[in-house]
Amino acid sequence: xxxxxxxxxxxxxxxxxxxxxxxxxxxxxxxxxxxxxxxxxxxxxxxxxxxxxxxxxxxxxxxxxxxxxxxxxxxxxxxxxxxxxxxxxxxxxxxxxxxxx
Length: 101
Description:
The protein is mainly alpha-helical. Helices cover 48% and strands 0% of the residues. The protein is built from 5 helices and no strands. The protein has helices at residues 29-39, 42-51, 54-62, 71-81, 87-93. The longest helix is centred in the middle third of the chain and has 11 residues, at 29-39. It is globular, with a radius of gyration of 14 Å. The model has no long low-confidence stretch (mean pLDDT 92).
């Protein structure tokens, strides 16, 4: 991670519900990485890989936050990064508008 903790303005498109001026690249890296992997385009991904190490990115994918991931996106990043998220954790991480209780 670079020393500059400010985020570029173009990331507002993937962090639409956040005030970029209040996010810290280091403290909020789980949120930032998750959002860029889920919603980002090529420019966003290039920025992500220039500001975070692959190890930092892998850690976020290995421990996906509950209800924040699209299933196909998580599948893709598991394959790309050679990660296997345990089934129970994976199921909880997938965004679902029709959850079963």
